[in-house]
Amino acid sequence: MTQQFAERAVNVAAPTGARNAGLADLAHILEDQNRRKLDVIAPAAALRFCEGNLHVEGVESLITEDGVTDVDGVYRPTAVADEGIADKLKIPLAYLRRMRADNVPLLDENVNAWLRTAPERRFMLRAFRGERGPGMRPAEGVARALLSDSYKLMDNLDMLLAALDGVKQSGHPTQVTGCDLTDRRMYVRVESEAVAVQARSLLRGYRSPFDERSGDELPLISAGFVITNSEVGGGAYTITPRAVIQVCRNGMTMAKDVMRAVHLGGKQDEGVVSWSGQTQRKTLELITSKTADAVRTFLSREYVEAKVREMEGAAGRPLADPTKTIEHVTKTLSIGAEAKETILAHFIRGGQITAGGVMQAVTSTAQTLTDADQAAALEALALPALTAAAAHG
To answer: Any bridge partners for residue 122, and if so which?
Structure first.
């Protein structure tokens, strides 16, 4: 599997991203992130903006010859954190972004003014600590998200290990085929070639846009699923069934059958957050159990065959004007202009002048995107694209 890693350029403490990484590489990144994590429940009175950074009163420590002194933490917000700040303080996001780009003093003034309107209001800050500089002074860290104080921590590494335990308990032979990690979410794609069904009607006449291999020669669809989690309020822990076209590795997710666990808990005391071992153990045991149940369902031959039959019903619909159909599909599903052009090119190379060809072009285009969040979102639109293309004709 090709590894594509990107170190974020915000500062030395920024999270490391991954696209199409292996499982071992993902685990290594998550272990490093866990070492840097800082989670704090703080009132608005303890927060302030200065030079575009979020300052948090007394959460870091300064080591001197006289001992240890509590000092303010300084954290550079990510784009995700800015979204949370805008949401919690009711500042239009576009305006906040404009201030960050063009007038940082005005950004400081606006955020601080709104923080002062309700000084007792509490938030959860998720951050990464910076590496300590000379004299053991804490360096600038990264503000990952500003969330509700009732947000339940379900961290990526813990969720990944619990989910993989559930996969093991299910008894199905599987392999992890790729992992993505962004500032917003973790994605882990799992597949079972032991559960592969014939889809000759669905793949008749189709060619891979990557190497022109024929779907007629390899008309197989493998069962799989994708595990996702967000540590920053970007969505629940989910397991979503995923079908994989073997000839081109196109994947399509069945969002209506998703299994999810939300990040909602009770209010927490102020200060650095540390969940009890019992609370964490119960949460992870539930994730393991739910995962095992989901895998047994999603990796059954009956489930995959039923999904293939559903797709075949619409996929063979011929298209009178493919260009207009793709225009209609991309507009209906709010797919951007750049992706639309790639979808059209992949549709032509794929050779299927049908609604099914549009679906394949959407999923193959998703494979080419370097942004994992955008790729996952586009892959989830494969089945809606099939429905829209078949209806347009």
So the answer is: 43
User: Of the candidates 289, 241, 242, which has an alpha carbon nearest to the alpha carbon of residue 261?
Assistant: 289
**CB contact set of 111 (below 8 Å; sequence gap of 6+):** 48, 49, 85, 89, 91
Beta strands in the chain (DSSP E): 4-7, 16-21, 37-43, 47-50, 53-64, 67-77, 122-128, 141-148, 175-181, 186-198, 220-229, 237-245, 250-253, 259-261, 271-272
Q: What are phi and psi of 100, to 5 degrees?
A: -65, -35
pLDDT band at 12 (very low <50, low <70, confident <90, very high): very low
Q: In the block, which residue shows the tokens 């962004």?
A: 182
**CA 180 vs CA 3, 16, 19, 177: distances in Å:** 10, 11, 5, 11
- pTM for this one? 0.89
Write the pLDDT tens digit of every residue in 320-341. 999 999 999 999 999 999 999 9
| β-bridge partners, 220 | 198
- Cα 66-71-74 angle, rounded to 5 deg: 140
Q: What is the pLDDT of residues 218-237, one digit of tens each?
A: 999 999 999 999 999 998 89
List C-alpha distances in Å: 247 to 244, 266, 352. 9, 48, 14
Q: Are 215 and 201 in contact (CB under 8 A)?
A: no
